[in-house]
Amino acid sequence: MSATKLYILDTNVLLHDPRCLYEFKEQDVCIPMTVLEELDDIKDRKKNVAQEARVVIRAIDDILSTATTPSQIAKGVPITLPGKDRETKLGKLSVFPDHELTVRQGFLPDIKNKDNLIINCALHLQSTTTHREVVLVTKDINMRLKAMGAGLEKVEDYRTDQLVSDIELLPAGHMHLDGTFWEQVTEVNSFQKDGNTYHKVARSLLPNAYVNEYIYDDTKDFAARVTSIDSDEITLIDLNYDRLMQQECWGISPITIFQAFAMQSLVDPEIDLCVINGAAGSGKTLLALACALEMVIEQQRFNKIIVTRSTPPVAEDIGFLPGTEEEKMTPWLSAIHDNLEAMHEGDERPQSSVKYAIEKANIQFKSLNFIRGRSIQDALVIIDEAQNLTPSQLKTIITRCGKGTKMICLGNLAQIDSNYLTALTSGLTYLVERFRGFEGSANIHLEGIFRSRLAEYAEKSL
Known about the structure:
18 strands; six-stranded mixed sheet
């Protein structure tokens, strides 16, 4: 059997990672005609994935443009990396005319079902290409089950962009030290800078620490954040446990040290990207909104707050909803209104206070569809429900950040609504892992649930 394999790609793999064609190294890739038809159908829709579909189509065209005859496309065209690495030779890309296949023994019967057509294509190639292994790659779990049930020997999920093998390995953003921190320190160099106290300690004391990771111990006295790491030393900024717990933004104070870490990272001008993940009811949105209002209205560090989130598939085309863009997005951003009302529930006229906060802070509710191509300046951008975004979608949003803009990503990896994402392949996981150690970003995993005792019990028991 030849060393090269033949990978047949489902549409959802191409949409999940538009660069996946270059990720199979020396192995060959086949795209059924049905997949091209699905991409063609998606590229003109007003959906978040339309951009990914267009990128994929351009990538396929770039590779196949060197072919001069239809037979070359059927046999396979060498895949070359774009740009400077164009000389790097990978496998071959081919297009299979699966629409020419007729139903026969062993095939799935309903050929109007596009998944069945792709599976039948894989079954045909498996039976006719006996000299090498044929592998169907799809992110659709049910399609993988159907393919195996139909007799396909090799069916895989696309995991090339999976950065961690277990969600438990994802960094929490904070490290607890048993006992007393200072009792473990043998040598320290402390100094003052810009009104803050810094400590340089041996790296061997915190060998696994990374930049912007928070450190605390059992004393409820010491708390710090790693600011830089070199070969021998780690520099910590002393945050003081009591001072962290006494923070207040727009009337909201932290309940736990984890919320205190989150608030510190949210208001710190040195941090451009703040990722907060945690269970439902852990306070993610409330803390982000409170700090955002404080920074825009009281401190006047930003001009506006832009709030966006992924919308469920049935609502991706928001054009059917009445009103302006902000009004169309309101049903999907009701969590923001809920938290604004919670912050002002003690006011004499809560609804007036909420309206004042929205107008004074210039809070804008935006659809992800309209963020592409923008350059956002001097703004706080809050991405709610970030766990439902793919890595490429999050990349698109974050690269919109212009001068003076801070990005806040909120999410709960236990509540993924996307059909093709898991906790391991979510863009939120990708973001946390890729930005670990970047001096301009901080990641905080919130522990504990404070919405209600009912919500806490449900999170633990259901």
